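Record pair follows.
FIRST:
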Amino acid sequence: MFLGDKIRKIRLEKGIGRNELADLIGCTGPHITHIEKRQRDTVSLGTACGIAKVFGMSVDELIQDTEFDIRDFMKNDK
C-alpha cells in the first residue's frame, strides 16, 4: 500500500474531508489530493506529522506497512 492510499483510507474511516484535514494541518485541499493520488513523490515530515496527529497516531504508525521510504522525508525537508 502506498502512503497516499493509507492516508485516504484512514481519513475516510474517520469521516474527515480533504479540506478539513488540510485546514487542520495548515495546507490546502489540493495538496492533500496530490498526496492521496500519488501526484507527489514525497511527503514532508511536517505534513506527515500533522496528518498523524490529526489521526491520533505516530508517524511510525502512519507509514507502517506502506511503500514509503523514510529517506523520502529528507528529499522534501531541506
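SECOND:
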Amino acid sequence: MNALDEKIGRFCAEYALSPQQTRIFTAMMHGAISNEALARRTGITAGAVRVHLERIAHKSLTISRAELIYLFFTGRRGE
C-alpha cells in the first residue's frame, strides 16, 4: 500500500465512509473525476455515484467535490 492509499484509508475511517463510498472516494482520488468515470471504475450507475457522493459530502461537511478534495489534502474545509 502506498502513502496515498494509506491517507485515503485514514480519511475514509475518520468520516465513517461505507465500503461503497470508500471505493468511490478512492477511485476519485486516483483520477476518476466525472460521475460516469467513477461509475465505470466501481461498476455502479452514475446516478448511484451521485447519491454516494452526496452522502460523502454530508458526512465530511463539504459542499462540493473541490472542497472534499481540498479537505482531503489540507485537513481544512474551504472558506
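COMMENT: Residues 13 and 25 are 12 Å apart (CA to CA).
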